[in-house]
Amino acid sequence: MDISFSVRLPRDARSLPLMRGLLRQALEHLDVSTQAIEEIVLALTEACANVVQHAGEHEEYQVDVAITDDVCRVSVLDDGQGFDFERASAPEGSPLEAGRGLVLMKALVDDLQFVRSDDGRHRVALEKRLRAEPKLRLLQS
């Protein structure tokens, strides 16, 4: 079974629990493992929190979710200025939390991309495999 949805949310910290709940319920409905659910929801939280904190004056952002039997893809889009992911590491002397969300997202998902969409918006794309890669079976004679 596949589930996909798109949500436009106000750029407000109160939107985060709503988005977490929607994603969690969809993943639970598809019987995704608890560990995978927690990892995906935490990565989504970090991506949305970055938008809420850094997207500038824009009033809303969008979250697109596509879940299949094998993979969960989440995109968080905003109209902010964006940033250079390669140069976003925390500078020396900055607070411990600076850059922590990027490190967490990278550790929690299988693929993380920061791209500028064709429509000019900035997209954080998260992808997490929901099933382990098939193991090779040794043939016995």
UniProtKB/TrEMBL annotation:
InterPro entries per the UniProt record, alphabetical: Anti-sigma-factor_SerPK, HATPase_C_sf, HATPase_dom
Claim: Transferase is one of the keywords in the record: yes
Pfam entry (one): HATPase_c_2
The entry's keywords: Kinase, Serine/threonine-protein kinase, Transferase
MF (Gene Ontology): protein serine/threonine kinase activity
Histidine kinase/HSP90-like ATPase domain: residues covered: 10-121
Keyword Kinase carried by entry: yes
Protein name (record): Serine/threonine-protein kinase RsbW
Species of origin: Blastococcus aggregatus
